[in-house]
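Quick illustration, no need to memorize.
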Amino acid sequence: MTDPFNILAAEYRPMVLAYLRAMVKDAHLAEDLTQETMIAAHESPGGFEPGGNFGRWLRGIARNKALMHWRSEKRHPVLVDSRVVEGIDEVFDGLDRNPAEIDWWESRKLALRDCVALLSGHLKAAVDSVYFGGNSLDQSAGILRSTPAAVGQRLSRARTQIRECMGRKLQLLNGHG
């Protein structure tokens, strides 16, 4: 019989990897940090409160692993601007699974892709640069010929629009529309 932790870890591993890919540019580093996250989670199963949000717990471990790596290895840039990390956390909180759904991850990925595609030009450019391009707010400001504060505001507005769009789409997916 398979250990319940291993079942959950296998199910949530793609989400942790996607979360870390949103934080680091290097795909191999994201894979390594995902592995480190799973090992750390396995070594401290008492850290998870039964009935809690397993995905959020794993993301907390993953975030700490990424930040620890960034502090020790300046060669691999990790987005550490707190607004960016909060935004990544916010988006992934919206993607947390409903156990009653069979294809929860795929349906949410498609809904998220659709919602990002609906963003206006400036908002989409900021999201593409920071979340998909792996650039910091300062780097994105240079690329977008703007200021870091303006890029941060665009990301905040984009997250709000994505959250609202995801809410509508997920209601439809869950048959409540």
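The domain at 1-78 is CATH 1.10.1740.10 (Rna Polymerase Sigma Factor; Chain: A).
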